[in-house]
Amino acid sequence: MHQECVLLNGSIVTFDAAQPRVTALAIRDGRVVALGNAAEARAALGPRAAVLDLGGRTAIPALTDAHVHLVSHALARTRVQLDDVRDFDEVLRRIAAYAAALPAGAWLRGGGWDHTLWGGRWPTAAELDAVTGGRPALLSRKDGHSAWVNHRALALAGIDATTADPPGGAIQRDADGTPSGIVFEMAIDLVRCHVPAPGEAEILAAVEDAIAEAHGYGMVGMHVPTSMTPGDGALTLGTVQRLRERGRLALRCLMYLGLDGLEPALTTGLRSGFGDRWIRLGGLKFFADGTLGSQTAEMLEPYEGGGGRGLPVIGRDQMDDVVTRAIAGGLAVSVHAIGDAANRAVLDAIERGTAAAGGRRPALPHRIEHCQLLTTTDIPRFAQLGVVASMQPIHCTQDLPVAQELWGARCAGAYAWRSLRDSGAVLAFGSDAPVESLDPWLSVHAAVTRERRDSGPAGGWYPEQRLSVAEALEGFTAGAAIAAGAAHEQGRLSPGFLADIAVLDADPFAVEPAHLAGIRADITILEGQVVWQRS
Description:
The structure is a single chain. 31% of the residues lie in helices and 21% in strands. It is α/β, with parallel strands linked by helices. The chain has an 8-stranded parallel β-sheet. A 6-stranded mixed β-sheet has the order 3-2-7-22-23-24, with helices on one face. Strands 9-10-11-12-14-13 form a 6-stranded mixed β-sheet. A hairpin with a 4-residue loop joins β11 and β12 (146-149). α10 (316-328) crosses α11 (340-356). The model has no long low-confidence stretch (mean pLDDT 96).
């Protein structure tokens, strides 16, 4: 597009309270300069301004995914994918077909499996042996907090009946103590460290493909937290920098350091907000607990059926020390917490760390990632402490059956978007890809309906927590912008704001709620430039 362009003949949803829906918009040098009708938009620009006729289509502010493991998602798209496979025999067939195309001895990677779809039985190393042809295999569960490995992988890692569980992790064992083929949390690293790393060219190509995928949804930004994979933060930061250097980063990235980055950041004086709007430092990301599906999310009370209280990944004293030091050094913290005990512990640590800093807060807000189960007493604390609730609505509908089974009546405080929003908390929405699909419209559908697309329940699961379409989209626009410290120029279409626009193939405010999940972008515009156009 030209430096000056006018968008005409559309239904443009701005999220600007003064002009919430207009038919035309003017862009100059990557920013919105005028809103209104065709005459008003044309008058703001010179006579040579280019014209983009929207043809009656709906446009909205382009979306930002507030939680994506970018490199992991990109590479997962190139490996065996077991997402939503409900039949275990089909899982084995898919693995066998993928393994047959690999060189002898090559590691088989991939994942996305969910044992709760097969009745809750954990798979075994022996079952994986039968379809991997002697190749070592490491297949992550969909949440990334447990992994399925075969005997070849266990042998290469030196894991046997005498191997002790590492701190923050566990090895699942048969009755005689023999490892069964499932490793949890930090125990995954005992195997993962033996897997050869992908080459730079493979990673760059995969990430570029993933960015194109994002554009197809109307997305122009990502918040990229570190995962539990050692070195993930450095790898991802290096990858996006290389793409930027080569002029191929058509996406804004808010980057988070892992715990291994705390000391270097404090030593060098790095603070939240460092960088520019293309690559910017969000703060420090770490984990408080595990996940619901792996039953490692840390709970105040045992799981239903007496399944224990989960697995804290970091001790309370260490968490307090990390948070206090980060805040003192100007770093916002972003903490993975799913269980109600973990969420309370993180809120407590942020409260103590803020008090120790004399009430000072970093330039960007603190966040809790996922916030899946909260008590009624902890919900108001997000707004009181200025903590963003960084949530992924698709987790609600995907996890609904297992949440009901493992949390029972406590689910009244699960995925509590309405309660959090009404308490004054900022909601920032994302996907958690590759744990779930990168597609943000699946989460918009989940937030509005709280229904699984295949099985309801009709009217929604705990429907009092549903959001409107506008509120759901705000999680991917204004909420994400607030979390990134960019609310002054991103998240809505107003004069002076960046011209980030998604032209959609349907109006999300007019379609039946069931059809929200199928919406796509026809055109995606980033700072006034078309970066995606559906052929």
